[in-house]
Amino acid sequence: MTNFSGAFSITEASSPTEAGPARTGTAGRDDFIFRLSISATACHGFWHDAALVLPSVLFVLYLGFHARSNIKKLSHRRSFVMIGYYGLLWFAVLLNLGWCFLQVWQCTPGKQVAWNLLSLFATSAMLFLEISIVAFLLKENYASCLETLARTFMISGLFVGVDLLLKAIFIFGFGVPLFLDMEIADRGKWGVWCTNKLFLTAAYGYILFVHFSKWRDKLPPRPAFYNYVIVMFVTTAVMLFACGLAGIRGGFGLWLYNLTVVCYHSLYLPFLYVTFLADFFKEEDWLLDSAYYSEMKDAGFFDADWE
């Protein structure tokens, strides 16, 4: 050990190209950049973080680019349902973007509490969208949209509030590392996630069961809704399977769970937008006016003008 230290000091002192003050500043800066780059990819690696951040940033840029025209259409058509879900979408998108950018917090000492809080609110915002939009579309009669929307938000908020409270109790009360991916040996963590995904999988599975049964008339006649339910059923079922494997120390289960988490946080919100909101903003006003005119003409509203 002494010889190594001496060799290092001799090599350092005999370097003819390094000056004292200049070297200190350069070395300090290089060391800071090195530690920053290492900490930014220490949790999962560059490709994991890129797979999370890149789709989220692109989706935020897309929403921002169309925000002005979308807001104009919302104010012109005064659809309380679309206004509510568009605002919720922006809220969830920004929280999820922060969650994707700040992955390093879960590996930084002193940041675990902040990371857990950010994860709680980001996942709860997405879960609220996930529950409320299904609950709203399952209503048999939503002619009074504002009243139905308010009731849906209240019920969804109750479920999400209970979910958030239970997760907070497990995290801060029992020390279960729900959102710390480095803690893979905690069986309590996988038990909580298995229970969570089991409820979601059962809910989506029940909707699909009713759709293929004799009671399908009680469900909304919307193909996009069933495509959404099928995708979410498969996603939650795979996550449930991955949590079960990870709970019994399966390396493949942990890899599969991380993959589904990346897919959910990077693709779910764009998928939700394309499925339920994009068509509303794509339709031009003149197309709607033409459709309304055709319906009124077919109903005979303009027959008197020709007499």
TrEMBL record:
- Transmembrane parts of this sequence: 46-65, 85-105, 117-138, 158-178, 190-212, 224-248, 254-278
Composition-biased stretches (Polar residues): 1-17
Report the locations given in the UniProt record.
Membrane
Signal peptide interval: none
A single cellular component GO annotation: plasma membrane
Q: GO terms for molecular function, please?
A: G protein-coupled receptor activity
Instruction: Specify the domain of life of the species encoding this protein.
Output: Eukaryota
Q: Which UniProt keywords apply?
A: Membrane, Transmembrane, Transmembrane helix
Pfam annotation, one family: Tmemb_40
Q: Where is this region: Disordered?
A: 1-24
Spell out the family assignment given in the record's similarity comment: Belongs to the UPF0359 family.
Q: PANTHER family attached here?
A: TRANSMEMBRANE PROTEIN ADIPOCYTE-ASSOCIATED 1
What name is this protein filed under?
Transmembrane protein adipocyte-associated 1 homolog
Lineage here is: Eukaryota, Viridiplantae, Streptophyta, Embryophyta, Tracheophyta
